[in-house]
Amino acid sequence: MSTPSLLILAGDGIGPEVMTEVRKIIDWFGAKRDLAFDVSEDLVGGAAYDVHGVPLADETMAKAQEVDAVLLGAVGGPKYDDLDFSVKPERGLLRLRKEMDLYSNLRPAQCFDALADFSSLKKDVVAGLDIMIVRELTSGIYFGEPRGISVNASGEREGVNTQRYTESEIARVARSAFELAKRRGNKVCSMEKANVMESGILWREIVQKVHDEEYPDVELSHMYADAGGMQLCRWPKQFDVIVTDNLFGDLLSDVAAMLTGSLGMLPSASLGAPMENGRPKALYEPVHGSAPDIAGQGKANPIACILSFAMALRYSFDQGAEADRLEKAVEKVLADGLRTADLMGPEGGSPVSTSAMGDAIVAAL
Amino acid sequence: MSTPSLLILAGDGIGPEVMTEVRKIIDWFGAKRDLAFDVSEDLVGGAAYDVHGVPLADETMAKAQEVDAVLLGAVGGPKYDDLDFSVKPERGLLRLRKEMDLYSNLRPAQCFDALADFSSLKKDVVAGLDIMIVRELTSGIYFGEPRGISVNASGEREGVNTQRYTESEIARVARSAFELAKRRGNKVCSMEKANVMESGILWREIVQKVHDEEYPDVELSHMYADAGGMQLCRWPKQFDVIVTDNLFGDLLSDVAAMLTGSLGMLPSASLGAPMENGRPKALYEPVHGSAPDIAGQGKANPIACILSFAMALRYSFDQGAEADRLEKAVEKVLADGLRTADLMGPEGGSPVSTSAMGDAIVAAL
Ligand SMILES: CC(C)[C@H](C(=O)O)[C@@H](O)C(=O)O
Ligand SMILES: CC(C)[C@H](C(=O)O)[C@@H](O)C(=O)O
């Protein structure tokens, strides 16, 4: 097999500085584990807008379609707040998701033992937490037409967005959730608002059907998304895999991430259908945002982005053992007490810089 | 002024039994404080379906339009799970909200001192918490057309719902939030997904405009709803009033309610435009659901419903002092250690029944 290719889109804010640390990790795997990658870099978000006037150039989009995996930092920042909707940094990310057809967004919410005290939740509620949220990522209200702001029949402006889900869109992300569950706790909880929305009724019906026909041995439950939000806060360990739509997934995965107290630590994978070489189309990115307030100060935590590369090793390159190795290295530096600024408790201490954290993880490897 | 009128719709599950306790409170105010109400009762939800074949009869709807305030228990239960969408118990509640045009849903998330330990969050994160979520209740994706499940051009079934907000719908709920803020901490945070949805862009623009033109002295901030969910879990005390749309409000208010650890304690008010007598159209209901699993066992906590009546005293009948009196009575029985089953900690103890809790509150009055 030829050298696998990686496209790095560092993006805005702290994106470039955390990506610098990921490069160190990638280089280590090339040098020490004979796992070389053909790495290229390009622009996305505000960084792309500054150069091209759009948050993702067509050539970058084309490159993303060709590589084996994309690694993304973060997009957005106050500098771009007043841009027109169509060229906002976020549109670059949304275009990648849509055109690569990355319908299954895996967002693990894991609580690292060494960090359980950082959660605003009681330690026994979150210690050892390990759930996986599977969010549908290419449809629903994020992409449905009609959409926009226009003047209605009464002469008033009206803002419109459309939630739209087809049977096959629901079925494929449900399959992705059931497949994951089989390799984890064998339990899926599907969340929607079938009591209020017809799209939720179809969602529930299709998830149930995929279950009954293809995954009868996985335990399946359904929950209204508002109750799901409550239950995540009350006792998150009741869940194993949660599958939900694009918008609910956006909210619920952020709530779940915050519960762990480890926001700067959480990676994500966005996967599509298999390419010719058998690998899924894939984009990996940290759950955290571009954090413009601390950008360029060496304060950012590179771990979420590094663990996103670990997910790439696992889901794109079939290197589960190497992914484990990288995750263990991260756990080790945390257990050793190394902390970036975001992980400083009220008792203080002296934080390490972004690059010191990256170096320590390389050393632990 | 003639005797104010109240329509009680106890509904399903624990609705009737908690409402029995509210009746005791209403009777006490009539007998001891010269605050008589003209009370009538009717059916909603599954209870109405069982009799009328619809979850809200037209005559009940007409009555609700005429009274000064509606007091609702809860709707729904497994018995009705397989009913057609159009006659599900929830449709009765949604019809009341829509036809009474109750656009402003006030959901206080308050942490009772005596109960701070019940939260899954750390005590210092929630003790003393007192925020107010103002949820738009008559528009958005709950009611937008087109909606439904139909076969699309590719021959596949598709579920569709439409988020639709006009300028005036946004402006009136924003006003309601700013008015509340003036009587509280003078701070409003508006939540949407303006980075992804055009309806969110219009929402942000109009909230800002109402602020600038009518409430420049209230502090206003904007947050994406996913970040809002995170911040609610991280440090909820940063908020005073939160204003948001119907669907985000559904999720975020449930998350906020769960944070307090006092779900069985939280009331809500749904208010519309002033009627001829100057009172707003109004419906009051607990935030909790119908809890079919414990219905009829005397285990339900009547406090949320009793505090919903306190909100009625305050917002419909201009009896703020009497509302305070009732809220103090509730605090007193809690401080005295009285607990219904839902408020039993892991250390156990002996819970009091629904009716014993009601009696104790009457006694404390
Ligand atoms: C940046 C934004 C467009 C994005 C989303 O809403 O999907 C983000 O919140 C996320 O969850 O990845
Ligand atoms: C019962 C249901 C229709 C309702 C809603 O979704 O609005 C409930 O969850 C609520 O928050 O009042």
Automatic annotation (TrEMBL), chains A, B:
Site residues by UniProt (Important for catalysis): 142, 193
Residue numbers binding Mg(2+): 226, 250, 254
GO terms for MF: 3-isopropylmalate dehydrogenase activity; magnesium ion binding; NAD binding
UniProt keyword annotations, A-Z: Amino-acid biosynthesis, Branched-chain amino acid biosynthesis, Cytoplasm, Leucine biosynthesis, Magnesium, Manganese, Metal-binding, NAD, Oxidoreductase
Domain Isopropylmalate dehydrogenase-like, first and last residues per copy: 5-361
Pathway in which this enzyme or protein is active: Amino-acid biosynthesis; L-leucine biosynthesis; L-leucine from 3-methyl-2-oxobutanoate: step 3/4
Role, per record: Catalyzes the oxidation of 3-carboxy-2-hydroxy-4-methylpentanoate (3-isopropylmalate) to 3-carboxy-4-methyl-2-oxopentanoate. The product decarboxylates to 4-methyl-2 oxopentanoate.
Protein name: 3-isopropylmalate dehydrogenase
